[in-house]
Amino acid sequence: MKAMAIHMPGAHGELTEIELPLPVPGEHEVLIEMYATSVHPADCRILEEARIAGGERPAACPFVPGVVVAGIIADTGAGVSRFKAGDEVFGLKPAAGSGGYAEYTLAKEDELALKPPGLSFAAAGGLPAAGLAAWQALGAAKVSSRDRVLVHDGAGAIGSFAVQLAKLRGATVITTISNDADLDAVWGLGADQAINSSGQDFAAILGQSIDVVIDTAGGRVLDSSFAVLTSGGRLFSTAGPPDPAQAAQQGVQAGCIIPAADAFQLSELARLIAARRLKAPAGPVFTLSVEGLQSACELQASGKAPGIIAITIGQQEPGL
Q: Are residues 72 and 173 located together in one domain of the fold?
């Protein structure tokens, strides 16, 4: 099978196309014929540094990145009970194992859910990482209908899910955008207020009126977000850890969310999409190749990608 792999650990590792034998599923694993994946920051860090995300131990090489999977189950291990061959699934794998940038990959059954009916594989490939990050951030913040929630970059991958999921919890949702071209997108997601942060100071506009901040930008945006929180507010970031000293000084709850696979949450995201209560935002699409992945990661790093960057594997959706 074709795969995109890193051959050398360390700063000089390079991504190359290689042929690997078809993997055999273990007792609680499934073999997935891949149709799509997406670009995740963990993948881009691996490609940039040729290391496991977060600067941990060098990856055993050849190492195939790709934490997001979307495809059709080709085979199952003896202990698998939730899925069968032919099921269309999507899910999230740990960065340390990865394997999504290939024509076939293995995944544990508790890392997967059935793909929403009618949703393309390209769209499903963008759902697990961004959707779970938003779901888990809102859950950690215990967002309810009583809350005023600020979501940074509501037109982005994680932000677009966070806006919608916060509205489904009954919250009042304010979002920042980077340009006025994103206004229609965030209104369509249900945002109650949008602030163009490229020309306006969101902290000066909002004052201390926000119960929950969901940060997807990090850096100065994250640091400035403390200023808008009410007493006892909550701040959760998917882009980096908030300053614990500042959180303690203000008496607010703060934390960093790294999305983890959760079969129930994936199934709930699928249910909401199937019921048309949640939209999977479309974004740029690249093909599985060295050049495609490099271009996709450069776009992701620029912060200018609308929606979620998808990677398609193969020429078409199955059955077309």
A: no
CATH, residue 165? 3.90.180.10
Paired with 226 in beta bridges are: none
Spatial neighbors of 33 by CB under 8 A, at least 6 apart, are 71, 72, 73, 74, 103, 104
pLDDT digits (tens, 9 = 90+) for 193-221: 999 998 899 999 999 999 999 999 999 99
**Pairing assessment for the beta strands 229-237 and 253-256 based on DSSP bridges:** parallel
In a domain, 318, yes or no: no
Q: Cα(77)–Cα(54) distance, rounded to whole angstroms?
A: 31
Domain match, 140 and 102 both: no
Within a 10 A sphere around the Cβ of 304, how many other Cβ atoms? Answer: 10
Q: pLDDT above 90 covers what percent of the chain?
A: 72
Environment class of 222 (CB within 10 Å of its CB; exposed 0-12, middle 13-18, buried 19+): buried
- Residue 299 CB contacts under 8 Å (≥ 6 apart), including other chains: 39, 284, 305, 309
Range of the domain at 48: 2-126+280-312
Task: State pTM to two decimals.
Answer: 0.91
pLDDT tens digits along 11-65: 445 788 999 999 999 999 999 999 999 887 767 666 665 544 444 444 567 889 8
Residue 168 and residue 244 share a domain: yes
Residue 8 shares a structural domain with residue 83: yes
Total domains in the chain come to 2
